[in-house]
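Now read the record:
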Amino acid sequence: MKHFLAMKKKVLSRKDLQILRVIMEKIRINYSELARELNVSHTAIRKRINKMIFENKYVAMIPELNIKNLNFILALVFLEVATDTDLNKLLLRFSECPRIISIFKVMGEYNLVALVYAENYKVLDSILGSCMLRTADEVRRSKVIPIQNILMGEYFRIQIPVKKYVNAPCGMKCGQCTRLKMKECIGCPSTIYYRGWFALEKKS
């Protein structure tokens, strides 16, 4: 409980979140330095990078957050979805969910796997039991495996929620959630009710 309550203090200013968002969307590349190092023209470097990023989409120059240093936890959520129609509905509903890092289509007992994050295990238990993928009508059954420790690759791309909404992107109403009122959850990072690391600093 102490860990859960302490998270209230870890808030950022709107400017902090805006800076993180801009860095993620518009990271700059120093073409001149690359040109000098590789002994080619500035124009050639720009053309090659633009082709890799924008034309072929082989590469994305995107900064990522260190999950380990933030003390966030990861979990794999295995899902069984019956039809492609159900799959498309699920993807559409949760396409802007800030807690979902990636969703994969797999072969085997389950046909979908989602990589999600939460600020602690209490939050993970809350969101998976009330407002995330597992509770969707399109999901036949599910299984959750929390990741105990990150052994390789500590950085992940996480959506930075700058603008705050009343309702979550998936349509859930955090303001009416019993778990939020009971302090069993800290809310969706995209809403005004959120009290975790991505919360905006209140103006005095």
About this structure: The beta strands are 65-66, 73-81, 100-105, 112-118, 139-146, 155-156. The chain has seven helices and six strands. The longest strand covers residues 73-81. Residues 1-9 have pLDDT under 50 and may be disordered.
